[in-house]
Amino acid sequence: MSDEKKLALIATKGTLDWAYPPFILASTAAALDYEVQIFFTFYGLQLLKKDLDLKVSPLGNPGMPMPMGMDKWFPTIGTAIPGMEAMMSGMMKSKMKSKGVASVAELRELCQEADVKLIACQMTVDLFDMQPSEFIDGIDYAGAATFFEFAGESDINLFI
Amino acid sequence: MSDYTEKFDATGLNCPLPILRSKKVLTTMNSGDVLYVIATDSGSVKDFDAFCKQTGNELLESSEAEGKYHYYIKKA
């Protein structure tokens, strides 16, 4: 279909909160019959790991709502206490589950089912000494020129 | 409205799951078939409208009753 719309995304972040925008937009666009590609670079590569161990940190994030209104009275330096990150990540995940929000793994599967093309930045894979065995199956490894081949003819390009 | 080909209960699911799962059901249906979706996500009202406008499927009815949203979608 030549009139098919195209969406090109670059995913650069590897935290639980930032894992959502690329997968939500990609899966929804696919449901709207867009052809979609996501290029994962730097920390974004965490989103392609078989073992998704994504976290969210309150450290240095004054916009993050915290339980018991902690964001209002808890000292900022306290967010650096060991265990805070794990605690907040756990709370965020259980809250998402209780609100019927999909898990990152589920959204990623829906993307793959809908033929969203997932591309890992080969340079970053080499830079961080990552192994293809750490990543899910069905992804491509390529560079910036490959991204532009698709992005150049896309209707929407987003850097996330 | 009461006639439909398939029914999908998206109760409890949040954005974008009601749309994504409904789309999956629609792909298994034939042109002219009607999918009946029940959802509790209040954002789904505008989303189903936008989904149908963009995909060419026809939103025959969109209504709300007792905190639930009901959609009848005719596959293009």
How is this structure best described in words?
Chain A is built from six helices and five strands; from the N terminus they run E-H-E-H-H-H-E-H-E-H-E. By secondary structure, chain A is of the alpha/beta class. In chain A, helix 5 (122-127) links the parallel strand 3 and strand 4 (140-142). In chain A, helix 1 runs parallel beside helix 4. The radius of gyration of chain A is 17 Å and the shape is globular. By secondary structure, chain B is of the alpha+beta class. Chain B is 30% helix and 34% strand. Chain B has helices at residues 17-27, 44-55, and strands at 6-10, 34-39, 58-65, 68-74. Chain B starts with 5 loop residues before the first strand and ends with a strand. The model of chain B has no long low-confidence stretch (mean pLDDT 95). Chains A and B meet through helix 1 of A and helix 1 and helix 2 of B.
In short:
The complex is a heterodimer of chains A (160) and B (76). Chain A is α/β, with parallel strands linked by helices. Chain A has helices spanning 16-31, 70-73, 84-98, 104-113, 122-127, 144-151, and strands at residues 6-11, 35-40, 117-121, 140-142, 156-159.
